[in-house]
Amino acid sequence: xxxxxxxxxxxxxxxxxxxxxxxxxxxxxxxxxxxxxxxxxxxxxxxxxxxxxxxxxxxxxxxxxxxxxxxxxxxxxxxxxxxxxxxxxxxxxxxxxxxxxxxxxxxxxxxxxxxxxxxxxxxxxxxxxxxxxxxxxxxxxxxxxxxxxxxxxxxxxxxxxxxxxxxxxxxxxxxxxxxxxxxxxxxxxxxxxxxxxxxxxxxxxxxxxxxxxxxxxxxxxxxxxxxxxxxxxxxxxxxxxxxxxxxxxxxxxxxxxxxxxxxxxxxxxxxxxxxxxxxxxxxxxxxxxxxxxxxxxxxxxxxxxxxxxxxxxxxxxxxxxxxxxxxxxxxxxxxxxxxxxxxxxxxxxxxxxxxxxxxxxxxxxxxxxxxxxxxxxxxxxxxxxxxxxxxxxxxxxxxxxxxxxxxxxxxxxxxxxxxxxxxxxxxxxxxxxxxxxxxxxxxxxxxxxxxxxxxxxxxxxxxxxxxxxxxxxxxxxxxxxxxxxxxxxxxxxxxxxxxxxxxxxxxxxxxxxxxxxxxxxxxxxxxxxxxxxxxxxxxxxxxxxxxxxxxxxxxxxxxxxxxxxxxxxxxxxxxxxxxxxxxxxxxxxxxxxxxxxxxxxxxxxxxxxxxxxxxxxxxxxxxxxxxxxxxxxxx
Length: 635
Description:
- This protein is α+β, with helices and mostly antiparallel strands.
- A hairpin with a 2-residue loop joins β16 (458-459) and β17.
- The longest helix is centred in the C-terminal third of the chain and has 45 residues, at 570-614.
- The radius of gyration is 46 Å and the shape is elongated.
């Protein structure tokens, strides 16, 4: 019991500063940190010949398992390399046949990584940084995250190491005296290699919104997945994922900060992803997903397939990002289901986050954070540990693989360590957890050098669109030619119907004679029952699949376009036409007679009117002569 309390106290003392990071965003940490060293031997001149310690830089690409010889050069200007050497017209590119250039620089005034970057651009093959104070060696780390440093940190490919102030002064003195200083950097013992299996662990985080380091971490996991799974499946390695959590002191467990950042009453905490307690996701959301990923590994390991952890983590990054507000249990469960894992076992492993008791999984994680032996405490995310030695260098697939391969006993390395050619096909097992079409050859699973990816395919010129995991749908021209565009399709007795319609922008719509959503179902419409056909009095209706049949009583023939029945015999047809012509002729004669009567009556009327008018001015043949009174008076 006493030992347990002492261990708790030790952990709390080591992890309390990280809680301050959670609450106050302070970057301070007092945990025990072990410097990983490589052997630096001077082969000339005699005055400084011998072996010296140097601390491997925490960036670049150390040559794990190998060695590198070169000539040390101390620049005449720009001793601290805080400026580009091109500004001084200086180059350190090795001449053909000459040893590589190891550039000796002074510590101070700028980031270690910037010094190495400027040296690399000037042609140096490695960098030695001389300390400016007499102190034990430290590990040169990357600067605080910012956009400008991220641009060059990822591109540093040369190794670097820090040497003591006194040894640096000796090399400078020898160089200024005209001596050629030749050295050999040896990384062959930087990683222990006791047997034919490598044990390695990765301390990581599920938070994908913590800036440059989170982006680097996620990219590494995606890139390294294929190699990691090959090593694990072949029994060459034993991988264990780990996640850092922090305590909340008992006096603060009821505070707003601890309640939003912790689970299990303040026992397990993580910083707020957005550094804002009032919005977005909380630290406890990160702790819960970290715990879920640990349980995914546990359940997968119990099933004999621990490498599925890599699939879950990469898929969760793609499908459930914070920025799309999908960083939640529902999205995680969909990933778990797609990979064929037992979700109930994982939920049982997670337990109750509100319980006022230890969580066995997270308790083990906090115990593991405290360094045992020569490893040191884990204080930096991400941290890679190979055979109980912390990895130094760039989180890059080839660099990390080289470090892991250096952990095998000589001559026991697997083929992947001797060749970059990896032949895998993860799509053969459960289709890689990706979407699969109804046709066997249509799948979103794509096997690559880095492992499988889920991408909606391009098939015969038709592009499928979707998330690649649970859904892909053909789109654009030609959609209907591929699996009927994902629409309903059925064939019976030699008759086939498809709900895929359109050319440029095809859609799913049930064809005439059917009803439904057009995607999963189209049902036959009973036109007879719904009174949509065969409505003439002489008609009788029979429903068929996708259509109907109408027949007429007696000798009548059904005309579908007019929904009517007519006689089948020609004489009856002629008689019908004769009757029609007779009616038309009668109507014509009646019209002609009416017109003649009209014309006769009109003429008669006009004649009588004209005669009446003329009779006023002159005698007509049918009237007696009228004498003029004027004539009578003259007489």
